[in-house]
Amino acid sequence: MQAFSEPRPAPASPIAEPMTVALVGFGEVGVVHHHAYRNSPAVRLVGVADPNPARLALIDPADGVPTYARLEDMLAEQKPQIACVLTPAATHEDVVRACAQAGAHVLCEKPLALSEASAEAMIAACREAGVKLSYGSSYRHLPAVREARRLIAEDAIGRVRLLQEQAVGGTGPKAQRPMGPVHYPVGGPGGTGMGLVDHGVHLIDIFGWLIGDHVRGVFGRGNRTGEPLGVEFLTLTFDGGAVGQLVYDDGVFPTTLPGEGLFSWGGFWDAAGYHAGGQWAAHPGCIHVHGERGALRIFHYANALFLNDADGLRQIPVEDRPAPHHFAAQIEAFVEDIRADAAPATPAEAGVEALRVLLAAYESDGRRTVAIPG
Asked: Which of 25, 118, 119, 360 has its CA 20 to 30 A from that of 134?
């Protein structure tokens, strides 16, 4: 299995007995969830389900975590209190319904579904079963992102006018790796792992979350499965006047200079896949937030945050619990919600909102602005 940096100590938790959790799907992101959960005091892994025996073989038998080729068998034998759904988005509705009917609370990875109707059906299924459904917006648990949100809420940079993120650069079009129809059906929204659908949906969610505002207009273009890959872009306009911009293309070469890299404390994803933390990142992912009195540069995976204002440029300390341990923070927050019988802090409705904006970009198709009803 992939090597990982050692976890930093988890925050003190009042939870005496860990809740049982099972992983549904053991692809690349399943591996990092597995590592994070094993190092969290809030949960105890009781099973992993995946139909691919090669994926299950990656789990060390010494871990003592039972593996299953069939989801139904795992749910029946282990009866987990929480199911973490990490399967392709096209399967989410059926998998979430099965987990809910088995009595498990559900944390579902992004994107929540492939259509609003499917997402709403998932919410209804969990409501009818009396279980909670939380949207897996893991970026909300990255320490640098959380600290940036706190600073924005405290008016440290004034009214936000512009948010930006881009992932541009790879080794040319021949090296691009489309997610393919297993993940996203032919003809529908798709593209690569660092594109608008599989990656950009994170930013669609946290841009509004960072500034406490809602998207009202969308102009953009995204790649579709089975069609030639091109530049993807998205411009978001918010109620309060802020603008968000996303640009993606991993089929070109980067222009980043050697001195513009950063040592990444956390694990990170790029066009080549996942990399463990504790190494140099030549093209570190970052989010730019520009306010009227200052600006923030958020290196979300590298776990670094910088503030520039009238007092100059300076680094802001953040919690020393970088990726992939934000997945542990995410499940710990969900455990607290369940224990308190409270609505999930990241509700499924947040996933519906992000999906609505994402699909509006495809409706726009670089031709017109699409309004988002509020």
From this structure: 360
